[in-house]
Specification:
Layout: H1 2-11, E1 13-14, E2 20-21, H2 32-46, E3 53-57, H3 62-72, E4 76-79, E5 91-98, E6 103-110, E7 119-127, H4 131-142, E8 146-156, H5 161-167, E9 172-180, E10 187-188, H6 189-194
Parallel strand pairs: 3-4, 3-7, 7-8, 8-9
Antiparallel strand pairs: 1-2, 5-6, 9-10
The structure holds guanosine-5',3'-tetraphosphate (G4P).
Length: 195
């Protein structure tokens, strides 16, 4: 997606060989015009799949996931990382280990919002090692619902998540795929392949 790649090039900050900071438009401040275009792009890629729900994890997945759900005309559910005061029983629960943060967290979704009749699209802001997506897949399977695909805003293709998910036969669509962040530079997969 051209607009997203331009935004990454103009505003993204390479913090290390593994981490790209994009807090000016995705992870802290959010650009609503770009989020709308991202929602349209994901809806275009998954429109034929008869999706009934979009699912993400709080917090940064919510922006792109909400715009996608709006375009598809279905509800968005976000998995919670912290226990809510009003949400304490009848939960799907999964554990997610973050290699980036080196911590395990429990994520939850109320059983009220997904069931076996649902065809679910997962949307997230980053794909690194795929642990967040695997946690969401686990909960969708607990509900006996179907995972129809995964839409990722920025995939770090040099980490394992994309391979792990695609090897499971899941359709993974990323709007920007980063081949490397070495030497303080963002290189997209298409450029790396062109060389
Ligand atoms: P994984 O789910 O693919 O295994 O990723 P990992 O555990 O490594 O990522 C943990 C958190 O760090 C996630 O956000 C993820 O979006 C974010 N993250 C991973 N790589 C990058 C990166 O290069 N840049 C930025 N900016 N974020 C990255 P989170 O903890 O769920 O945070 P948030 O959604 O509340 O912002």
């Amino acid at each position: 997606m051209r607009e997203l790649k331009e935004k990454i090039m103009s505003e993204g900050i390479v913090l290390s060989e593994h981490v790209l900071k994009v807090d000016s438009f995705l992870n802290h401040q959010m650009d609503p015009v770009l989020m709308k275009k991202i929602g349209e792009a994901f809806a275009e890629k998954f429109r034929d799949k008869k999706i009934t729900k979009v699912i993400t994890i709080e917090s940064s997945g919510i922006g792109p996931a909400l715009m996608t759900a709006y375009e598809l005309g279905v509800p968005l559910i976000f998995a919670r990382k912290r226990k809510s005061l009003t949400l304490n029983s009848d939960l799907y629960i999964s554990k997610v280990y973050s290699f980036t943060k080196q911590e395990e967290s429990e994520i939850t979704i109320s059983r009220k919002f997904i069931d076996c009749s649902d065809s679910v699209l997962i949307i997230d802001d980053f794909l690194a090692n795929g642990q967040a997506a695997l946690g969401l897949i686990d909960m969708i399977q607990q509900a006996k619902a179907q995972v129809v695909g995964i839409g990722i805003v920025i995939e770090k293709a040099f980490q394992d998540g994309g391979r792990i998910l695609r090897e499971r036969g899941i359709k993974v669509e990323s709007l920007a795929q980063i081949a490397s962040l070495s030497d303080g530079k963002v290189r997209f997969v298409e450029e790396a392949l062109a060389k």
